[in-house]
TrEMBL record:
It comes from Ceratocystis fimbriata f. sp. platani. Keywords: Flavoprotein, Oxidoreductase. The keyword Flavoprotein applies. This is Osmotic growth protein 1. Residues 31-394 form the FAD-dependent oxidoreductase 2 FAD-binding domain. One of its GO terms (molecular function) is oxidoreductase activity. It comes from the Eukaryota. InterPro entries: FAD-dep_OxRdtase_2_FAD-bd, FAD-oxidoreductase_2, FAD/NAD-bd_sf, Succ_DH/fumarate_Rdtase_cat_sf.
Length: 415
């Protein structure tokens, strides 16, 4: 079922590999199949060998069953993974890490094109590092007026969840890497609008689990307008058909996300952080506008099975608010303002199931590996096609990151 859900999310591009004059013949089927087949092993490896808590399983948009993992503590999954991996790496005396370096160039052997290392600067001083290279530099969602504007001019200046920084794809293009799906950009439906700085282009992500645990989206009139657990592209498109929330210089919409006491209890650690940041507020039902109260009542009737959801939602997480219960209007809910944001770039360098970066063969147009160069994560393209399935980005990093690391280590040992 995971494979089927992933293929559905990839969309038409799943069947377009190798077709058309401008296409890049990546093995989409092989990439997606390996990702889904290795997902169980990846979770077990993180939990058993790295010690990452992934004990809570929930449903995210686009998934037919609950299968996305997170921990029971306060840390988001990404931070928990990074902290766990760093702690493990620090047990190795040879491990060195710097966050102050900037890679300037990927170096190669002139005659063969074999990657030999990188040139980088630290505090303005140029250095060289030799050996096989693994690129895990992320996407270009934060490169608002650079790569993003180059491939999607319509999204230039759009709010984003990524920090503002240049993408690294051009460094790999310089050594022959082929790019794929660069115009395929995911708009996440829910980025928080900070009441203290509504015009900021940098938005904090409103985690998908807020909707997975029962949270709903209401327009300015208090109406639900979409199945909150549909594909991110579907939810985003539905939001962008509603009236905009006009903020000078920023394209955003006027949508509220609401969690009842049941969903709030299930997400206590998340909400503690969001309220501390000022992104969500706790209120009593009676203090909401009448239209919003009616919206809560209508959704609660759907959850209780009194009526079928006309929008098609069938999973309601931990929502338990009932209009007929005593104290309904005194019940405390959490509410925040959200808007769609640029969140993920599906495009990147072409690569294969061995995490090798690919170049175009000048003679026949086929893709061949660039020796000594590997990549994993959002810097790559070809897996997600039109739209990334929620939860698959960290999974992709783990599955293909391990493959890339092992391949680079094998090559280093062989020299």
């Amino acid at each position: 079922m995971f494979l089927e859900d992933s293929i559905k999310s990839v969309g038409q591009r799943y069947n377009e590999a190798g077709s058309g004059a401008d296409s890049v013949p990546v093995d989409r089927e092989g990439l997606v199949r390996l990702l889904t087949e290795q997902s169980k092993h990846a979770v077990e490896w993180l939990a058993d060998e790295i010690g990452v808590d992934l004990s809570v399983v929930a449903t995210l948009g686009g998934h037919s069953v609950p299968r996305t993992h997170r921990g029971a503590g306060k840390l988001p999954p990404g931070a928990a993974l990074v902290n766990g991996l760093l702690a493990k790496l620090k047990e190795t005396p040879e491990f060195q890490l710097t966050s102050a370096a900037e890679v300037m160039k990927v170096t190669t052997e002139t005659a063969t094109g074999h990657v030999t290392g990188v040139e980088y600067t630290v505090n303005g001083e140029l250095n060289n590092l030799a050996g096989p290279v693994v690129f895990a530099a992320g996407g270009f969602a934060g490169d608002t007026y650079g790569l993003l504007a180059r491939y999607r001019q319509d999204l230039a200046g759009f709010p984003a969840t990524a920090e503002e920084r240049p993408g690294a794809q051009d460094l790999l293009v310089a050594v022959g890497a082929e790019l794929v799906d660069m115009d395929s950009v995911q708009i996440h439906p829910t980025g928080f609008i900070d009441p203290a700085n509504e015009r900021s282009r940098s938005k904090f992500l409103a985690a998908e689990v807020l909707r997975g645990e029962g949270g709903i989206l209401l327009d300015s009139g208090g109406n639900r307008f979409v199945n909150e657990l549909d594909l991110r592209s579907v939810v985003s498109d539905a939001i962008m058909k509603t009236p905009q929330n006009v903020a000078e210089g920023v394209k955003q919409w006027d949508i509220s996300i609401v969690l009842d006491p049941g969903a709030s209890e299930a997400l206590a650690s998340h909400l503690g952080f969001y309220t501390w940041k000022g992104l969500m507020q706790k209120r009593k039902v009676k203090d909401l506008p009448p239209a919003f109260i009616n919206g809560l009542k209508g959704y609660s009737d759907i959850v209780a099975g009194k009526v079928e959801d006309p929008l098609g939602r069938t999973s309601f997480g931990s929502w338990k608010l009932k209009p007929e219960q005593q104290g309904f209007e005194e019940a405390e809910i959490y509410i925040g303002k959200i808007t769609p944001v640029v969140h993920f770039t599906m495009g990147g360098v072409a690569f294969d199931t061995k995490s090798r970066v690919l170049k175009r063969d000048g003679t026949g147009g086929e893709l061949t590996p660039i020796p000594g160069l590997f990549a994993a994560g959002e810097i790559t393209g070809g897996i997600h096609g039109d739209n990334r399935l929620g939860g698959s980005s960290l999974l992709e990093c783990v599955v293909y990151g391990r493959i890339a690391g092992e391949a680079a280590a094998d090559e280093l040992r062989a020299t």
